[in-house]
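Dear colleague,

Thank you for sharing your sequence with our group. We've completed the structure prediction you requested, and as agreed, I am returning the results in plain text so they can be pasted directly into your records. Please verify that the sequence below matches your submission; if there's any discrepancy, let me know and we will rerun it promptly.
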Amino acid sequence: MFRFGNPVYLYILLIIPVLAFLFGLAQYYKRKALNEFGDMSVIEQLMPFVSKSRPILKFIFLIIAITSIILALADPQFGSKLEKVKTKGAEIIIALDVSNSMLAEDIKPNRLERAKQAISKLIDKMKNDRIGLIVFAGDAYIQVPVTSDYTAAKMFLSSINPNIVSKQGTAIGSAIDLAMNSFTPESEMEKALIIITDGENHEDDALDASELAKEKGITIHTIGMGSPQGAPIPLQKGYGQTVYQKDHQGKIVVSKLDQTMLQEIAASGGGVFIRATNTQTGLNKLFERINKMEKKEMEERIYTDFEHRFQYLLAIALFFILLDIFVPERKSRWLKDFNLFKINS
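Please find the predicted structure tokens below.
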């Protein structure tokens, strides 16, 4: 099994395309400046030792070295010892609404970001429980299969936004159906589904799905994100411009919390409904409730020892740093006239 011990450092990789852009920009202005002096064919004859390819090659060496260092900081680890352990826990799947209405800002900074923050804090409190993550809008998708790898779950959680689904809408029933098929088959662990949404169900019959889930031993809890008064839905356009979603008549859409719908889903699923506010989302209360459920002891095989492999990445980084130092930008005096494809007449 592979994992990163400090995955937060992987965000530093975002600097790589920035460096590539700046390098390309510098090369462009450098060539533009040379063109102002005259014809490039003449200028190249006056600078026989200048190489076009070596600066690019040295930049590639530097990028490989930086990437290796960043990956080393993230601490790659490989599981080396697999053991059978007995644990008591529950399987929890969180179904998170990622429709555009979750961008409404009646809960700060917005409904979706507030929910993600709460889920992240919940994962930090988990010990022996297993967690899965489903995202849904017009359709439902598995974002994280049921797992005890909390680090991976938080990594995938951070990337969630409305653009990861192709169809807008709110299909709560589809999310419940997908969750029922996503729990570990024949597992005796307690199963709970937590649905986080504004409750504006437009696609299917969520009540029938929740009743079926209850029959299969799955308890469904709901958390309502938003307020009954509602709020407009901000959408980002080009150049950072913010506009508000409008209906077919050109009126601004106000997304309101459908509290009644979520209460009915929770009641038919044997769970509870909690309305989120700017001070709390309710996930902690639900987790305390789940912890009080009777949990059966389960035996599973997990990796108990992990070997660190950052040393190899540091060695790669050092190698390419040395290459960058010892490979000059200019051509060598002895090789400046060398051309493998030159044909002497």
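Summary note from our side: The longest helix spans residues 15-35.

Kind regards,
the structure core
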